[in-house]
Predict the structure of Insulinase family protein.
Amino acid sequence: MKRILILLLLSLSPLFCLNLDENLSVKKLDNGLTYYLYENSALKDSVSLILHIKAGSSDEKDNERGIAHFVEHMAFNGTKDFSKNELIKALESLGVKFGPDLNAMTGFDKTIYKIDIKNEGDNLNTALKVLANLGFKVKFEPKDLEAEKGVIVAEDKNRQSGMQRVFEQSLPYYYKDSIYEKRLPIGDMDIVRSATSELMRGFYERYYQPDNASLIVVGDFNKTQISDFIKVNFGDINGTSVKKDDKPIGYFNEMVVFNAFDKDITNQSVNFMFEGNFIPENSYENIKEMTKVYYISTLISLISNKRQSNGDSLIKSAFYPMDLYNKKSLNTFSLSVVDGNFTASVAEFSTILKGLRENGFSQNLFENAKTDLKALNLTSFKTSSSRKNQSYINEILNYIDSNTTFLSPKDSYEINEKILNELTLDDINEKFLDITKSTGVIVSIISKDEQNITKDEILEIYKNVKPLNTSEKVLPKTLLDANLSKVDPIKTEFDDKNLIHTYEFENGAKVHFKEMDTDKETVYFNAFKKGGYTNIPNINEAIFAVNISNGSGIGEFNDYEVRTITAGEVFNFSKFINRVSRGYSGSFLAKDMESFFKAFFVDFHAPKIDDNYFKNYITLSLDTLKRNLLQPDYKFALEFNDFYYAGNEKMKFADEKFINSLDKNRLEILLNELFSNAGEYEFIFVGDIKADKFLDMASRYIGNLNGDKKPTSIKDDGIREIDGTHKFERNYLSENVSKNTIIVKSYDLNYTAKNDIALELTTAVLNTLMREKIREDDGKVYGISAYPSLSVLPYQRAITSVYFTSEVNQKDEIYSDVKAIMENLKAGYKDEKELNSAKTVKKVELEKNFQQPGFWLMKMVNSKLFGIEFLNFDESIKLVDSITLDDIKEISNKAFDFENVVISSNIYKDSNLTN
């Protein structure tokens, strides 16, 4: 089974060379604005636009710390052509889902404004007009400035956490002697609170200039038309040249050990970072050098997987290059820490490092990694025509920021293939030695409590460890060495409206297949049977059985051996269990369909619990639990869960006693009870493969699964969340904030397709009203969002959950605000325009979703699982259009039942609880 390495895929897919992708048009207006156009029809009529300003927090003066980020916020508070409300309404009219972090971000070196739209009517021109206003026409009205200060202070509080504090402690080591260590984008709240329009405008006019900006447009559009729109909206903007300072980052050139610690973190680690020079991927040789680095990353992942699977180590190891803004590179080895034993992690690193320095990587490991990397390269090329807009935007941003060359998918594939064919084991071993001989090594110890590991202790551990054993076991070429005969389906149907094939086999298995090529070469699947947590007596036992089995390998082979046997094959699947169902989910490439089916066939007949993985998982679970019990969010969740379910034993979190009582044999028996019998399953596949080829495989591997037809059902175990009105508060947070949830429950809203979509639209209107009142007008929160849930089984009920982080003394006011807004909706909301904006956003979302195989898979599963009506795109759009303000009023009155409300708050530990 192949676990796709996302980092490597992203890094290797767009490797750069000398020839610019001919589909990328790069043009410059007379005022200096550069714009990049890339046509991509993977999603019909979908267009993504980015305005990139080459300025961020590292460009601030000492008295401007936080102003780059503040400017980004103020851009949405009113411009020359749009008042504050008009700007947001303009975005919503385009189908843009507006909210914090969705439309803009500020970093150390850049600020980005982003809009995703449907290309219809005048949308493109309007979107460009909005971006031109955000970039060059912001007003900075004093009245809006004061309200936004509260939002930014709330955002700062919202970001505070143990990991944030650890990151801030690490800055002097990552960014030695540089401006970066003094310029976190969120800034200095004293400066934010005292900021004036003049201070904001000074930064804005200094850096928001056309020659310091780039416009990126990717999607389904006409280049000639959009070029004309760009000239109209940006061509008359005057600007001046921007002077940018150099921002070097220093080198230590020696071993430096530091400890960043905070009691609220959960994940502890030891990291060895070898200082190196940044390598821009702008020549064949540089590309080759970086490919060696990614190759080493794959090899270290394989070694770690092998040591864990064989029971040689509990510690997870990883290697990756860390680029520090094109100034410096930190080639990082990261190791987990188990049971607070930091010296064991140092020893694990030393064992691997010493073994590889003395003996190098093995030939077998090298070949397995090459097979994987070549498969990922081929996959990237074959699926390139279905890549989404954001993928290309990320590459163009990298092209702009790193001054590299943007390759076409074909050139990228051919260059990568050539390099991978050229690379030898000696090349990789030599590169590894080159990286690890660096005199500059930064050792970071990330811990809950202060640690005192010294440089001398690390060197002594390295001196005394035994080097890694690099021997390899001989393994077969396949997980299933059998030729299964075809079993023809006993029943075949075709839904000509939705183009879905259904096959039923003699063993009772039902298979549904939809051919869909919007994700090229890829097929998604879900195999489920009815009955999840509510059908079984012990939830935690089922969860542990599933999780351990998913890491235990397949058949007689452990996880590393499976990874080795299936090297170069791209597929994955795992078992799942939730409230109402259990089964398998995953995906595969069309070329690896038979390998997927073979692996699935073996696992289905004999789901396993591997001895080593079982022991490791228990040890790691106990270690995680011990750390979690000291973590404020987990402590709160643990106690709230017991409160919410009135102390019901079945719903309790797993504790130490339960984990220690787990028995491997019992878990294997439970797995067979839960997941066997194909006759109880619905198998659903959606993707890019022909129906006849799919049926051939399904007839061999699903048709031959053990099973007999049996009905299944979703049982109601009678367990309910508490009814009535309640407050639940605890003082566990180290930050001076309150993390809050409002849960409104109703039994009065029955599930229908119309009620479901009406509840979504009602919640969208609710979110807009909460944002306008509580965030924009009052400045009390950074973000506040409601999420709806309308359940069919095991029982009918609607839940609307509202999440926000606030000042401790404002949480009750905000609850009153939320309740007042809900009561307003219940009384009869009159703004037809706001409802239409919510409809537009939903219709744009549906148009994108119905082009996605994963969305079809979800809809097909829900239809079969809950027996609900399956609506296609046209029917869904018609239903959205049918929702009226009267429907919003009716849904609000049924869903927002303040007789059943739970308000939970995790509060700063030094606050006084008065309720």
